[in-house]
């Protein structure tokens, strides 16, 4: 009976994950705002940094945005010279999105501040707990994907 009452008094895990997402996004928006981009645009750039040359559909999935909104996001980044589009040599109808040198420089300028934000998020965890947290998040994502 006490466990049920305690569970009802505690917020759901889904609620807690959303709380973390929103506070991270808010802080990330503050960090990247001076460069004239949003946290969603920053996320897309980091995806391209890890996996350059993605289709718009792949970039949308990996950046957690809809296929409809990725077009505006990419256009904005392209207008700023942070990404470029090229025809896929294996499928001439498909455009691939690639990170430019300017995009890489922008990411490099924010690397330290973003790392500090991540460290702040887990500062009360031991290195082992941080690794367990990373693994738990990965398992949760895979379970729902």
Give a structural overview.
The protein is mainly alpha-helical and 145 residues long. Helices cover 69% and strands 10% of the residues. It is built from 7 helices and 2 strands. The protein has helices at residues 2-9, 13-32, 39-50, 56-63, 67-79, 101-121, 127-144, and strands at 83-88, 91-99. The protein has a two-stranded antiparallel ribbon. β1 (83-88) and β2 (91-99) form a beta hairpin. α3 packs across α4 (56-63). The model has no long low-confidence stretch (mean pLDDT 93).
Provide tags for this entry.
single chain, mainly alpha, two-stranded antiparallel sheet, 2 strands, globular
In short:
By secondary structure, the protein is mainly α. The protein has helices at about 1-10, 15-30, 40-50, 55-65, 65-80, 100-120, 125-145, and strands spanning about 85-90, 90-100.
Content of β-strand? 5-15%
* Continuous helix count: 7
The main β sheet shows up as: 2 strands, antiparallel
Numbering strands along the chain, what is their spatial order in the largest sheet? 1-2
Integer-rounded radius of gyration: 18 Å
Strand-pairing-aware structural class: mainly alpha
**End-to-end Cα distance:** 34 Å
The tally of beta strands, per DSSP, is 2
Oligomer type: single chain
The overall pLDDT, averaged over residues, is 93
Rough outline: globular
Helix content: 55-70%
Could you give the order of the helices and strands? HHHHHEEHH
